[in-house]
Amino acid sequence: MKTNSSLTDTDLCVMCGMCLPQCPTYQLYQCETESPRGRLALMQAINQQRIEASAVTLLHIDHCLGCLNCETICPSRVPYGQLLDEFRDQFSSSIDKPLVSRQILAQSIKPNGLEKLASLADMPVLKQLNAFFKTVPQSHVEQLSANGPSELKNFYPSSTPSRGQVSLFTGCSGKATDLATIKDASVLLNRLGFDVSIAEQEYCCGAMHQHNGQQEMAQWLLEKNKAQFNELGSAAILFFSPACGASLELLTDIRIQDIRLFILNELQQHPLPFSTTNQPVALHESCSHRNMLKLKSLNTDLLKYIPGIQILESDQPYLCCGAGGLQSVNYPLQAHSILQQKLRSFDLLNTRVLLSDNIGCSLHIKSAISAYNPDIEILHPVSFLARQLVKLN
Ligand code: SF4
Ligand code: SF4
Fold this sequence. Notes:
This protein is an alpha/beta fold. The chain is built from 21 helices and nine strands. It folds into three domains: 7-94, Orthogonal Bundle (Fumarate Reductase Iron-sulfur Protein, Chain B, domain 2); 113-266, no CATH class; 281-388. It has helices at residues 24-29, 36-47, 55-62, 69-73, 80-91, 99-107, 113-119, 127-133, 138-144, 174-177, 179-191, 207-210, 215-232, 242-248, 259-269, 287-293, 298-303, 327-330, 332-344, 359-366, 381-388; strands at residues 155-156, 165-169, 195-198, 236-239, 256-258, 281-284, 311-313, 353-356, 377-379. α20 links the parallel β8 (353-356) and β9. It binds iron/sulfur cluster (2 copies). One iron/sulfur cluster (SF4) is lined by residues 13-19, 36-37, 40, 70, 74, 76, 78. One iron/sulfur cluster binds next to α1, α2 and α4.
């Protein structure tokens, strides 16, 4: 996953400042060193050895959430994301990170690594780990799933004559944190005529490592996944999280697709009946959805298949929720402050459901949403769609 970019590309920045209003850390701290422009200037000065890479300077750069709002709006096409990854690859060992953050990175390179780590999260001594996973009792997980109890299986056969097999990519944490979505998606795909396979053991997509200064490890994980996908022999590998997808889609010789896009394309050819909903739903779209995959209307196009759907959007749709991959663990106060601003931008009292397309965002939002509406559920759009599917007799 090494890129062709070099820190010399920081020269591309013409200091116009158009990115500043779009930057969540600049909005929060209101200082230049917490802005895209300021971070580029710091990276450049360190690269040219005009200043030292002091702890304070590194901290300003490392506060970045990697939301890429700046890259999306930049008229000079500064490859900000690549520059940040490259900078962290060189300097991350000089930045202190909490034990939990280091453990998550270390464990996630093992098959189903975070599933094992999540099982430890109930230990009182690991409070921050618990906060990351927002451990929910299994009974609640079952409640969230529209489609049946029981443990996750490795194979769900089509409920109509099979049109082929697809595999779900659950990564290092899907089975531990988002079982309901995996099961609900399987039911929907079965009704569309697909057998669904789920690998017993899966590797992390590598996105966390890519964005936390471990590019070689990210490349290694990508190769591991490639070998596994080839063994599965499915017509397509479907991912849930746009952040995972942005990494996996680098495997261009394998059909890897966003599950929402796959289902949308199938529904256009093979419509299914969905029941009407009378309640508005809030929609949170992740930065990786908007700025990495760039599938802008995908969530709304998919949700339009539900009769009566009314979508409540944020007043600030481009504002990051503050999760930023591991940033909610690395800088919890910053993440919490940005999340408050994001949650205030929704009219959450008028809905019982908030849809979120990225599990990292969902876990982070769960940590604070009860103050805005204690009855609200957080679901993946595919899970909500599956709940509205008219059941077969
Ligand atoms: S928008 Fe681009 S060129 Fe302008 S200050 Fe930001 S990074 Fe630099
Ligand atoms: S990636 Fe997001 S948080 Fe980081 S500098 Fe750009 S806009 Fe700010």
